[in-house]
Specification:
single chain, 177 residues, alpha+beta, 2 domains, 5 strands, 18% strand
């Protein structure tokens, strides 16, 4: 055997050894890829379950502080005869303020508004709700973000139905109830 043949055989031996290691590593990599695809399908299915359950959880979380406000206003209606529009309450601004309007006339004839109140939520988990008094602290310029969102409004906590009725009497003395 010549020197060249020895060198050539040594190279072929190393090359074949390297090719063997390459194929073994490639097979392991393919097994890992197949496992990853399996896990990816499982993960995708689990993420689908997660999104479905999360969506269901949020849809079941449908108790809103407006329900408390509606109940308060129903009681005010019973005691004063003032009818408040409560079927379509909306929140506005950074304070989540909700204005409500009392009207005169037949139910669902909302043509003559005779009083209005503005409520904001407090600690909802405790059923806390606040009522604007109609006063302003002047802490915010009227055209500032704070001013436009009512952060300068003086509020009082609603601790009883009488608080709401007294606020109505104070702000609308022409109402006789």
């Amino acid at each position: 055997m010549t020197d060249f043949e020895i060198i050539q055989q040594s190279f072929v031996k190393r090359y074949n050894h390297m090719e063997c290691r390459f194929r073994a590593t490639e097979e392991e990599a393919e097994k890992a890829r197949q496992a990853a695809l399996r896990y990816q399908r499982i993960a995708a299915r689990k993420m689908g379950e997660y999104y479905k359950l999360n969506s269901k959880a949020w849809s079941e979380r449908n108790v809103h502080w407006h329900e408390l406000l509606r109940d308060i206003l129903k009681e005010v209606d019973k005691r004063t005869g003032l009818h408040f529009i409560t079927d379509d309450l909306n929140t506005f601004g950074l304070r989540n303020e909700t204005p409500v309007f009392a009207y005169s006339g037949e139910p669902h004839d909302h043509t003559t508004v005779i009083a209005s109140l503005t409520f904001t939520p407090g600690d909802v988990e405790k059923g806390q709700i606040f009522l604007d008094t109609g006063e302003n602290t002047g802490a915010y310029h009227p055209n500032s973000i704070g001013g436009m969102n009512g952060f300068g409004n003086v509020t009082e906590e609603v601790t009883s139905i009488e608080v709401v009725i007294e606020n109505l009497k104070r702000r609308n003395p022409e109402l006789n109830f």
